[in-house]
Amino acid sequence: MLNLSTELARRQRENLYRHRRTLDSTTGTRALINGQEHLAFCSNDYLGLANHPAVVAAMQQGASRWGVGSGASHLVSGHSSAHHALEEELADFLGRPRTLLFSTGYMANLGTIAALCKRGDSLFEDRLNHASLLDAARLCQARMQRYAHNSVTALATRLAASTSDTRLVVSDAVFSMDGDLAALPQLAQCASQHDAWLMVDDAHGLGVLGRQGRGTLDHYGLDHDQCPILMGTLGKAFGTFGAFVAGSETLIEYLIQHARTYIYTTALPPAVAEATRTSLKLLQAEEWRRQKLQTLIKRFRQGATQLGLTLMDSTTPIQPLLIGNSAKAVAMSEALLQQDILIGAIRPPTVPDGTARLRITFSANHTEQQIDQLLNALEAVA
């Protein structure tokens, strides 16, 4: 029998133990913890919309009209006109026939992959894919083959050897712990050549990349035919909560009938859908937010290079500082906290052994002066 105490002790001994910090402030560039304010660089609120007055007002108005819960699953009585309007607006934004809302990104990935693949089918996943994509493969019991990170050559070799009737290639678009982009044009071509579906998780690209924030596929100029299955989350650049899958009319209808994480769970609160409809409008209209992010990223990378810090190859708001040793990463995170800088230490098993890091993320609400404050703090503790 698993000894829980022994396992917890092992995690502490190996500097892998995770601690929760309780915030007494809203999501933003500053975090109040135990009465002390810290400059925060660890949120996925990339565009700074989580506390936008118009988004907050839409949430409040939505709660006044719809209440605070949906009351049931979408297929029972939980699908409101607010949900339906958001699905249609997201589909129009992405240039896809339809979208389908899920309660979380994790549930969207689990439900979609398990609905499309079964025992005897083959799944091909990037080695650095998000945990939800890997767990989905285990859930559906298809044969999962992981290829070397961003290696289309390795993927092609595995696809060519596959004899499965159903083959699904799945990749993050922006890798959440590294910040780099998948080679999506090459992945799309490879999948097409081997008669495989391509599913892309664009949780960290939507809102940040592409025209008006349409995401990584738009950034590369890829269309619906090249990538028929797109998953996106609403809890990052959109600043709200939830997720969706976008695709053809047939795909969405199939998921409504077969995706267990859609069928057997309570729908998002309609008020959240109303808030997201507002954030979607802001996301498209306010190009300055994406421009501001690029300015901040450039300033940080230039400063970090001057300090001799080891950054990973990323042009996105995810800017990991590679440390390597877990104990050292934790120590640096704690030292930064003493300077009122909040950045999490990311360690195995979230990242491969020997690649512990500080995962630094930026928001359009950060200032250039705050970037300089971060660089000064990093210089002091490096």
Could you characterize the architecture of this molecule?
This protein has 382 residues and is an alpha/beta fold. It folds into two domains: 126 residues, Aspartate Aminotransferase, domain 1; 233 residues, Type I PLP-dependent aspartate aminotransferase-like (Major domain) (Aspartate Aminotransferase, domain 2, 3-Layer(aba) Sandwich). It contains 15 helices and 13 strands. The strands form three sheets. A seven-stranded mixed β-sheet has the order 3-9-8-7-6-4-5, with helices on both faces. It has a three-stranded mixed β-sheet with strand order 1-2-11. Strands 10-13-12 form a three-stranded antiparallel β-sheet. Helix 2 runs antiparallel to helix 12, helix 7 runs parallel beside helix 8 and helix 13 packs parallel to helix 15. The termini are far apart.
- The CATH class designation of the largest domain is Alpha Beta
Overall geometry comes to globular
Q: What is the straight-line distance between the termini?
A: 42 Å
Low-confidence stretches: none
Helix content: 40-55%
Total of helices = 15
> DSSP strand (E) fraction?
15-25%
Task: Quickly give the structural class.
Answer: alpha/beta
CATH superfamily grouping of the largest domain: Type I PLP-dependent aspartate aminotransferase-like (Major domain)
Number of strands: 13
Radius of gyration: 21 Å
The run of helices and strands is HEEHHHEHEHEHEHEHEEHHHHEHEEEH
Question: Major beta sheet, specifics?
Answer: 7 strands, mixed
Mean of all residue-level pLDDT scores: 96
Strands in their spatial order, largest beta sheet: 3-9-8-7-6-4-5
Total count of domains: 2
CATH fold field value of the largest domain: Aspartate Aminotransferase, domain 2
